[in-house]
Write a structure and sequence with these properties.
Elements (H helix, E strand, L loop, with lengths): L6 H6 L6 H7 L5 H15 L6 H9 L3 H13 L3 E6 L2 E5 L4 H5 L9 H10 L7 H14 L3 H15 L5 H13 L5 H13 L1 H10 L8 H13 L4 H9 L5 H14 L5 H25 L7 H14 L3 H13 L5 H13 L5 H24 L8 H13 L4 H11 L5 H14 L5 H7 L1 H13 L6 H13 L3
Antiparallel strand pairs: 1-2
């Protein structure tokens, strides 16, 4: 019996890439070498057979010789073993410290480095594993031996003779990622870090920390002041606002302020005050329309800032929320649609919206009066409002005419429908005044309406499209 994965399953599989490769190897390798490594890893994981050199070269549009060259590079880095050169066959190795420890380094290449390291740490018994770690990081990240010695000397000055080599490696790795690979560049960066001692100590004090400034603290300070452009006094003041989380929390705050183009404490204080106001406003809007959201940041960024950008005030947004609740609009999407409608109609200020809502209340009172005259005692509905708008706005009927039609509809089994029939008949007959309505009469109006309803006509597709376009463009 044989079992295997289908091609579809293989194509949908995820390729696992070690984080150490991404951080410690990929940034320092030629682009095409990285492509070869990744595509070769895919073949190794998911059944690559045959002439992999030709397949990789074809897929990546590379010369076959470049594929062999790339694998030689990764073999020197300790990430693959070359099993055969013709045809090319490689074995991928795990990217970890155990693999790196297996690498062989020239004893003569690092003789001067070893001698100077012994002179710097005369009382230390440096084991082969520690040497190998230094060699590995220099090879992998292309750090000059003189630059590495400068880094080690700096770490000894900070931490003393007992400084652990993992700390030294972490410092070297961070400096290499900043492009500090030569002695001059490393010396320049470390000299700059020395200038930050007093300022970093002030930041740590503001955070409530009593520890001495470490190189990582100085690197963070350089990021905030040089890369992001914050004045030192701003960094210190923001640090005072951090209750917990230390340097990491301070970094997150400063990055957020940078993204919002806030650099002075006056700008930051105003931003925070406004942020608190936005949270309160958003909570109150949600409360008034009857919804609850625990996380408000998305709502603020997606909706509230846009509404305020339209020119609405807190007061007008809360008034609209009350209007939505009374109109049974109980979702954030529905509220947003209502705000958009107000904006399109130019109703932005409290006076504008108050006048609009007052008119809506008066119109509802007129509709309620007409319904009561027709013998209907239920609340006013959206359909009633649409009908009343058609009668008074589209058909130009006076309010008295509508009330007269309501009186004629009283006692009918479907009074509102009967009102529609009467008013429609009057509209077809050109009647708009109370005097004309009384003269025309209800029976003739209803009959005219029924006659009009029985007339049928066939329309072409083109005519129907034209009609619907006209309806869509009409302000009903």
């Amino acid at each position: 019996m044989q079992a295997k994965l289908s091609r579809e399953i293989i194509e949908n599989e995820k390729l696992r890439i070690d984080n150490a490769f991404v951080t410690d190897f990929m940034p320092f390798a030629p682009e095409n070498y990285v492509k070869v490594y990744l595509y070769g890893l895919k073949l190794a994981c998911f059944g690559g057979v045959g002439d992999i050199e030709t397949e990789i070269a074809g897929k990546l549009n590379l010369e076959p010789g470049l594929v062999s060259e790339a694998f030689s590079y990764w073999a020197n880095e300790g990430l693959v073993n070359i099993l055969s050169t013709s045809p090319v066959a490689v074995e991928y190795l795990a990217v970890n410290k155990g693999t790196l420890a297996l690498r062989k380094f020239s004893k003569t290449k690092y003789k001067d480095f070893n001698d100077q390291l012994h002179a710097m740490l005369p009382s230390r018994n440096i084991l082969p594993n520690e040497y190998n770690e230094y060699y590995s990081i220099m090879e992998a990240m292309h750090i000059e031996p003189e630059a590495m010695l400068a880094i080690i000397a700096y770490c000894i000055r900070l931490k003393g003779q007992d400084v652990g080599y993992p700390y030294i490696l972490a410092v070297a790795r961070n400096l290499a990622r900043q492009g500090c690979l030569t002695y001059d560049r490393v010396n320049e960066q470390l000299s700059e870090f020395d200038l930050y001692d007093k300022d970093v100590a002030a930041v740590l004090h503001s955070l409530g920390s009593k520890k001495a400034p470490a190189i990582e603290d100085k690197r963070m300070f350089a990021k905030w002041t040089k890369t992001l452009g914050f004045p030192t006094e701003t960094v210190v003041q923001v640090a005072k606002s951090v209750k917990r989380g230390g340097m990491d929390r301070l970094d997150a705050l400063l990055v957020k302020y940078y993204e919002n183009h806030l650099f002075s404490m006056a700008e930051i204080d105003e931003f925070n005050r406004n942020r608190d106001r936005l949270y309160s406003l958003t909570k109150e809007i949600n409360k008034r329309i009857g919804v609850y959201y625990e996380q408000l940041d998305f709502i603020i960024e997606t909706y509230v800032t846009r509404w305020l950008g339209y020119g609405f005030t807190d007061e007008t947004l809360l008034t609209i929320a009350e209007y939505c609740f009374r109109c049974n609009i109980r979702t954030l999407e529905g509220y947003n649609a209502t705000v958009e409608k107000f904006y399109k109609q130019g109703l932005i200020t409290a006076d504008d919206i108050g006048e609009f809502l007052g008119e809506a209340v008066r119109r509802d009172a007129d509709i309620r009066e007409a319904l009561e005259k027709a013998g209907v005692t239920r609340p006013v509905t959206s359909r009633d409002r649409d009908s009343y708008r058609t009668w008074t706005y589209s058909w130009k009927m006076d309010r008295d005419v509508v009330l007269y039609a309501a009186s004629l509809a009283a006692g009918n089994a479907s009074p509102v429908s009967y009102m529609n029939a009467i008013l429609g008949g009057w509209h077809n007959a050109g009647v708009t005044s109370l005097e004309g309505a009384k003269k025309f009469g209800a029976n003739r109006a209803s009959a005219a309406r029924e006659t009009a309803a029985t007339v049928t006509k066939t329309y072409t597709s083109e005519q129907l499209n034209a009609m619907f376009d006209s309806l869509n463009n009409e302000d009903l």
